[in-house]
Structures are given as structure tokens and as C-alpha cells.
Amino acid sequence: MKTDDLVEALSARAAPVDFREVGRRIALAATSGLIVAAVAILIGLGPRSGLATAGAWAFLCVKVAFAAGIAATAAIYLSKLSRPGGAPRHEIWFVVLPFLAIMGLALVSLGTAPASHWSRMVAGDAWLECLVSIPVIAVVPFALTMWAVRQAAPTDLRRAGAFAGLVAGGISAIAYALHCTDDSLPFVAVWYGGTIIVCTLAGALLGPRLLRW
Amino acid sequence: MTADETELKTLMLASQRGDAAAYRALLAKLAPRLRGYYKRRLTGVGRSADEAEDLVQETLIAIHLKRQTYDPGALFTPWLHAIARYKLIDFLRSNRMSRMDVPIDDHHDLMAADDHASAEGTHDMTKLLDRLPKRTRQAIEAVKLEGNSVAETAARYGMSESNVKISIHRGLKALAALIGRDSSG
């Protein structure tokens, strides 16, 4: 077919479009992913115990703030990556900040505790459950986020996939915090941080295959 | 900021609002730029410039389907270049070439020169055409693909000239819809 005819055909379909749709779809995917993940955790593993104490509430808040900080900054960056041309590289630092904050807090916490407590503070009671739950629960938010990114037009598929994984990992960690009773900052830094990074790597591997358009 | 950027961005913003005339003008201006860009890049990696037309058409369709991803707060030509380059790399990869073969370029390369030597793309229109109603398909084939006049076509199929024109117009719209559905699905 002649290119001129294609131009005619396409311009006959110049329906108005809204540039905010890219961000809205990603926000919608992340929100529904969070609901699915939270329901799965609460039904599958049950809500955490010990919420009668202020300390437990404080730790719940720290965990949710850390995970939500990652999910939110990653989702904002992802909505830029989903447009052709991508996002400014220096803005990646906003996404790194929550990791640096939790690692700093974990080091302070280890530094103020006797060395004999360290292994217990890092391993907690349920490191294995955390290691398995966060990546597994992340699957649905990941699928929803990837679907939203596919509707847009990412041109760096590996990076877009990685950030979709990061969003999903963060969302999954918010949900897991509702169940988790390991109230120690080094635990959160190692197992929450580590599993979120696993989700990011999985996203980077799957991105080029799943996001092609 | 170049005059190109200002002009194309104005057209793009109007296109996003649904202004068909601006959209037609925009695509008509982009096609020769893309053609020049792809011919240079393809010959640069030792491929035939004839393949450029398919890439031009594929990129125009991509621009159409993804036009909501242009952020009015950003420059237009880098957005366009990112799509053009993405489609080029995708094309070369599916033809077993590495992106290492594609020289680093930027949106200035895209704006470098127009190439008006429009050619036929081999985009598989025959399959899409088969899905149109018979009269519409005949009219498009006769006029747009075989290059007959509207009067000849009207005589051949016993239709009035205005019916042929209407059929073509509706058919092109339906084709664009089919292209959109195929590419996004």
C-alpha cells in the first residue's frame, strides 16, 4: 500500500487522546495490584499479631513506609519510562532513596545492639516465609503493571521491565508487612530489600520479551 | 529550538485534541523525514533502502496508536526519534542484526533531510482488504492499488462515481481500524 494512502487512512481516525492516560493506567494497575496483594496476604497468611503495642504499630508503619516509598517513586519513574525517549537518568536517585534510608537505619540499629544479637536481628523468625511470599505475591501486581506499560510505548524495555518489577515488589512488600511480625530494621533491610531487588531483576529479564510493541 | 520542532509540536498538540486536518498535515510532514532517516540508516548497515518504506509505514502506524504517549510538556522531535529508532532496532533485531550495528544518532539526524520518493510498502494489506465488504474492497483495490480513475472504476463495477468515492473513504477508515486492532492485539 502507498504511504500516502496510509496517511489518509490514519488521519481519518484522529480521535482525541489524553496524554495523562499513561500515568492513569499505571496508577490504576498499581492500586488494583495492591488490593489483590493485600487480600491475598490477609486471607492466605492472616493479619499480624501484637498490634496492641505501640512498638508493633511503629514497625508496621516503618515497613509500609519503606515499601510504599519504593512503589510510589518507582511508579512515577515508570510512567516516564513508558513514554518514547524514557526518563532522565538522574531521577533514578529518588527510587534509591528508600533503600539508602532503610540500610542506614538498619546499620544504626545493629550498631547500638550487642554483636551477639546481630544474627537474630537479621534472620528474624520467618526470613524464609518473607523470601518466598514477597516474590510470589508480586506476580499479580507485576502482571497488571506490565499490562499498563504495554498500552504505552516504552523504548527501553529492559529498564521499563525492571521498574515494573520494582513497583510490583514494593506493592507486594506493603501487603506482606500486614502479616510480618519480624520487627527488626536489619530484617526489613535484608529480606524486604532483597526480595524487592529479586522482583526488579525478574522484571529486567522479562521486559524485552513482554513489553515489545 | 528549531522551526521544525515548533511547527511539528503545534501540529501534534492539535492532533492529540482530535484535529484531523492538523493530524494529516503532521503525518504528511513526518513520512518524508522518516523515509530519509530509514534509508540512511539501512544503507549504513548494508541493507537495501527498499526496506525503508515498510519501516516508514510501521512507524506511522506506531505514532498513530501511541499518540497519547506524547507528553505536551516535552519536546516533540525527541519523542518522534525515540519511536523511529525503536522501530529500526526492532526491525534489525528481527532480521538477526544486533543493535550494535546501529550507529548512535539523535533527533537531529531525523530532521536532517526529507525524502519524497514515496514507494509502495509491502505491508500485508491484502489480508486486511479481504475483511472489508466486497464493494468497498473492489473500489479501494481498483483506485488505490491499481491506480484506475474513479470514473473507470465506477464503470467497471456499475456504481456511481460518488458511490465509489464514498466506498473508498469508508474503506480507508475501516482499514485504519483493522490496522489499529491488529497491531495492538
Helix content of chain B: 55-70%
CATH class annotation of the largest domain in chain B: Mainly Alpha
Q: How many extended strands of chain B?
A: 0
Strand content of chain B: under 5%
Order of helices and strands of chain A: HHHHHHHHH
Q: How much is the average pLDDT of chain A?
A: 95
| CATH architecture level-2 label of the largest domain in chain B | Orthogonal Bundle
Order of helices and strands of chain B: HHHHHHHHH
Question: What layout of secondary structure does this protein have?
Answer:
The complex is a heterodimer of chains A (213) and B (185).
Chain A: H1 3-11, H2 21-44, H3 54-81, H4 92-111, H5 118-123, H6 127-137, H7 139-151, H8 157-177, H9 185-210
Helix pairs in contact in A: 2-3, 2-7, 2-8, 3-4, 3-8, 4-9, 6-8, 6-9, 7-8, 8-9
Chain B: H1 3-16, H2 20-44, H3 52-65, H4 76-94, H5 107-110, H6 125-129, H7 134-145, H8 150-157, H9 161-184
Helix pairs in contact in B: 1-2, 2-3, 3-4, 3-9, 7-8, 7-9, 8-9
List keywords for this structure.
heterodimer; A: 213 residues; 0% strand; B: 185 residues; mainly alpha; Rna Polymerase Sigma Factor, Chain: A; 2 domains
In short:
Chain A is mainly α and 213 residues long. Helices cover 74% and strands 0% of the residues of chain A. Chain A is built from nine helices and no strands.
What does this structure look like?
The complex is a heterodimer of chains A (213) and B (185). Chain A is 74% helix and 0% strand. Chain A has 9 helices and no strands. In chain A, helix 3 (54-81) packs antiparallel against helix 8, helix 7 runs antiparallel to helix 8 and helix 8 packs antiparallel against helix 9. Chain B is mainly α and 185 residues long. Chain B folds into 2 domains: 3-110, Rna Polymerase Sigma Factor, Chain: A (Orthogonal Bundle), CATH 1.10.1740.10; 125-184, Winged helix-like DNA-binding domain superfamily/Winged helix DNA-binding domain (Arc Repressor Mutant, subunit A, Orthogonal Bundle), CATH 1.10.10. The longest helix of chain B is centred in the first third of the chain and has 25 residues, at 20-44. The chains are: A mainly alpha (213), B mainly alpha (185).
